[in-house]
Design brief:
Number of strands: 4
Structural class: alpha+beta
Strand order of the largest sheet: 1-2-3-4
Radius of gyration: 39 Å
Largest sheet: 4 strands, antiparallel
Number of helices: 9
């Protein structure tokens, strides 16, 4: 009786039983693969651990830099007042709400040579003095700073400068810079609002008048 074709193929391709040597090799391969998988898992865990530690250190460093460089209320006021004396518009914008508009108006009001208007504004603030008397916290979380401002009145200095001088601009600016000029004392307040890297300062009318030598509230 002839065998069926299907039986012939089944016998031909029937899996032969593994010898002891083949079994040993198979078991070794399995152990190797298992060890590789374990190593791979350990490597992944190690990499993730290193990444997490690095991220944590960067986060701590960022927080430390923020607290070390962030200005407190007094430091913010000091830096803001310095920006006025230096006529640094960029810094003025960083701290004050509208002082840059005041200084720009001051420059435009100069009746001398237009090319010296910035020099004029610097001269107005050269002898500006201030003292932070106290800082209080408001109910809404903002701060109120009480300041004493002293500066000479640039209009009075102008009136006392010889108008017939050959170089009126130079003489007027020289007189403005004179530290012996009479200074007007003004008591004023500032409102400070916390921002990411310091405080935003809102000027009062008294403050603006004070830095200009009492000129705003003169009349």
């Amino acid at each position: 009786m002839k065998k069926k074709r299907s039986d012939i193929y089944r016998e031909k391709y029937k899996k032969k039983p593994e010898s002891k040597i083949e079994k040993n090799f198979t078991q070794k391969d399995k152990r190797k693969n298992s060890k590789k998988k374990i190593k791979a898992k350990k490597g992944l865990k190690y990499t993730l651990r290193r990444f997490f530690i690095a991220f944590l250190l960067l986060f701590i460093l960022a927080i430390a830099i923020f607290f070390l460089t962030s200005k407190n209320p007094q430091q913010s006021i000091d830096a803001a007042m310095e920006s006025i004396k230096e006529m640094n518009v960029k810094k003025q914008n960083d701290y004050f709400e509208k002082i840059d508009e005041i200084t720009a108006t001051l420059q435009e009001s100069y009746i001398g040579k237009e090319s010296r208007s910035n020099e004029f504004a610097k001269a107005v603030f050269e002898n500006l003095e201030y003292k932070i008397e106290k800082i209080e916290k408001n109910k809404d979380g903002t701060l109120k700073a009480y300041l004493e401002i002293k500066n000479s009145d640039f209009v009075d200095v102008y009136n006392n400068t010889n108008k017939k001088s050959e170089d009126f601009d130079s003489e007027y600016l020289k007189n403005l810079r004179n530290p012996k000029n009479k200074k007007i004392k003004t008591e004023c307040e500032l409102i400070l609002v916390k921002k990411f890297h310091g405080y935003r300062i809102f000027e009062s009318e008294e403050f603006v008048s004070g830095i200009l030598g009492g000129e705003v509230l003169k009349n």
